[in-house]
Design goal:
It comes from Caballeronia udeis. The protein is mostly helical. Helix content is about 60%, strand content about 5%. It has three domains: about 15-280, no CATH class; about 290-480, no CATH class; about 495-615. The protein is built from 29 helices and five strands. A five-stranded parallel beta sheet has the order 2-3-4-1-5, sandwiched between helices. Helix 3 (about 80-100) runs parallel beside helix 9 and helix 16 packs across helix 17.
Length: about 625
Amino acid sequence: MWHDVEATSDLLNFSLIAETAAGLIHDAGGQPISIGISGSWGTGKSSLVKMIGGALGEKDTSGKPYLFVEFNAWLYQGFDDAKLALLQAVSDVLSEEARNQKTFLEKAADFAKRVRWFRALKIAAPVASAAIVGGAVGGPIGAILGGLSGLVSGSLKESDIEKVKKAYDDLSPEVRELLKEKEVESPQKEIEGLRKAFAELLESLQVTLVVLVDDLDRCMPDTAISTLEAIRLLLFLPRTAFIIAADEKMIRSAVRAHFAQAQFDDELVTSYFDKLIQIPLRVPRLGVNEVKAYVLLLMLDLAVRRKLVDPTVAETAKTNVLAAVKEGWLGGLTRQKLVSAMGAAAAKLEKEIDIADQLAAILATVDQISGNPRLIKRFLNNLLIRESVAKAHGMTISFEHLVKLQLFERCASSAAFEFLAKSVTSSEDGQPEFLHKLEDELKNGEPYEAPDPSWNSPFVADWVALSPSLAGTNLRPLLHLSRDRVVALAALDELSREARSVFESLLEAKTVQHALVEQVKALGESEAESVLTRLKRRARTEQWDVVALRRCLHITKAFPTLGRSFCSLLDEIPPKDRPPVLVPLIASEEWAKELLERWAADAHTPAPVKNAIKIKR
């Protein structure tokens, strides 16, 4: 299995981009710079940010080091104020550096105190409604300041004095200490003082602070904007560099949502974004050569973990493969070049080389994968799971055949897969006659003719021509491993034509659509339950993908009584994979209350999920 986490080891040939970004920061010579790493979900933004940090560390030869702050905004979603969390992270790193240098400790303490002052204002805010608002500062602090002013003028009533006392008592000891020792200034002067203290501390320490911000596009609009505003507080000061990883489209949507009442048009949104991001870099989409290398290097990594290939041999092979990718423009990454690059590891990975060579073109171009590294990794993980299941059941299958059928299952339409499944189950030996005929015709150079309208697509035509041939192979064991896909093989005709049509439409849905809910209602509860059964199988196959889970909500909105059936699926999700974005979608449903209570009480539930549940409550 391959874990879905950011990598510091380059399997995507991103090193050139990382070195370019690191070079821009290094060449800035201490001048402020901000770089935006944009790319859609799963394209490798997090890995690229890590590589930039690594490449920049290697350039640290001047004696004026880089300090790194890694900040994942998504971790603070619904848990803490992202703006203050980022400021605190910066303060902690600079304070640690001052202690290491054993100098400028007073300046570090002054900056830390200013950060704590902003946090003190945040702590005070919750009791603002119970306090008197006075001066330029609100909440309990404002109550205290306003109370003092009222006492001087003689206008404060006895009841107001009691409120002031209560507001002061409600403040934490740290906030009260800050009130005693720090003169209150206007917010503008506080911000100016914070920036000045920050700049002076960096100059005194002779360091450049590099802030790596990740997962910003996973956040709700308020958290995303809060993080951007914290960046803006520290941006464009000498000796600073910000590297921000986020899907640009998502951030623009967050800006529109956060400032909805201000009615930002596209030009203003662009202006807001461009003021923060000086240099936009986009994660390149993987081409055929890059996908070929990526698949092979993942297989090589697995072979090392299985102790089939020596780590030293594997490292040499990896270096050679990536070097060959960089020269792909000279003529493509052919199988011969792959064998040559793999060197001593080639003999043990001959099958894997064939798979990478065969699959790359389709994985890079088909819409369902489009060269997305995360989807490629999930595709390969699913293969390993099915291979393990087959071994556990004593099933003799070819891994190459398993790869080919899963590719069809993942990328072909549901109708096309159902046509294949019906043909296999209706044949006596599990060998559909039409497939044998198709493969023979293509081998003889004859044009492809679809055996069914659902097979009339460029992908299916290319898939039939892929090696290995499936003719003469009993496909029943392979279909048994794919039984969670769309149709129940034991009851292929269980759905009516109308229900099958609704099911096909639901598979295309990315969000909950009212029109589809009405179509489900028209089916009746019995057939809707059958459709839900198939959607649940699909969600398991797609490893609890949020889109797959969201499709099921069409059924529960049409028939809330089927909500408990959906809950049974949600209870199967491993705790670490419970999606926080699903919580707002089901929190108001009666059937989801017990489920969310269990999730909230479970110690293994991720913090973002618990926070989402808490917010909804």
